[in-house]
Design goal:
Layout (H helix, E strand, L loop, with lengths): L15 H6 L10 E8 L5 E3 L7 E3 L4 H10 L4 E7 L16 H12 L4 E6 L12 E3 L2 E3 H18 L3 E4 L6 H11 L8 E6 L6 H7 L19 H13 L3 E5 L5 H10 L4 E5 L1 H12 L5 H15 L3 E4 L2 H10 L3
Parallel strand pairs: 1-3, 1-4, 1-12, 4-5, 5-8, 9-10, 10-11, 11-12
Antiparallel strand pairs: 2-3, 6-7
Length: 328
Amino acid sequence: MASFPELRLRRLRRTERLRALVRESRVDVGDLVYPLFVVEGEGIKQEIVSMPGILRLSPDQLPPEIEEIAGLKIPAVLLFGIPEHKDETGSSAYDREGVVQQATRAIKKLAPQLLVITDVCLCEYTSHGHCGIVVGDQIDNDQTLPLLAKIALSHAEAGADIVAPSDMMDGRVKAIRESLDKNGFQYIPILSYAAKYASAFYGPFREAAQSAPQFGDRLSYQMDYHNLREALREIEQDIAEGADIIMVKPALAYLDVIRQARNTFGCPLAAYNVSGEYAMVKAAARQDWLEERKAVLEILTAIKRAGADIIITYHAKEVASWLKSGDA
């Protein structure tokens, strides 16, 4: 093998055109999914304080947002719902006239080509804020599964292109797959939050979705952030139950998990660049502590380089506009 001075690795870094020619990892607009928070009601357009630039929108306020997203060629949105009514079983989540169901129908009418992915969980809809049915002081895994299947089915009936269970109950992919298949939705893919960690980086999301648990925490069902091998077991189990796409969440502090998942499994891999990661960049940029565009692109490229095929990010609109204008 040649060595210096014959070998000069800097030769290919001399100009931007050279660097671009040999670039190994690139973020493309086709990789991106933009999360949307839809709130029940009319005429609602609320800024989320901890997530600058991100809004809660009622279904009637979606048209300008969807027009912008479609115009930027972002291929998909991920819907989270905030209902007016919450109860112990999260019944608004599987109401056929629920907010996500309304929003899904509206989006498919406005932009049929835009993929609608729907979050399947109970936390935004339950009075206690947990992702499953509470019995005593425990989250009952098996009682939760039929409700998750009902939610996913109601989303498919409303026109969702992909359903995405995020609850971390054991067996939920199988329950959802069986329900979809039984009711004629064999063609609807499942994007499983397969390795979802109990993370400190979810704080702004919980404000946005009004989904903070009213007691305790989610450590008994979301993953322990100390563990990597367990994530591979979770992913393997979800694939065996019928998951078509798997996800690692969060992304930035879990690049090693993304890489291990990519090396181990052949199915499409998503990573969620979560609310806390977004909020940190926005806060630092507002203080002029870093250059926002460069930081965002570096972060998303790292997620892509680690092995993600799909990146769910609140930066999607910004990145799409930078790519469109040639600023990325």
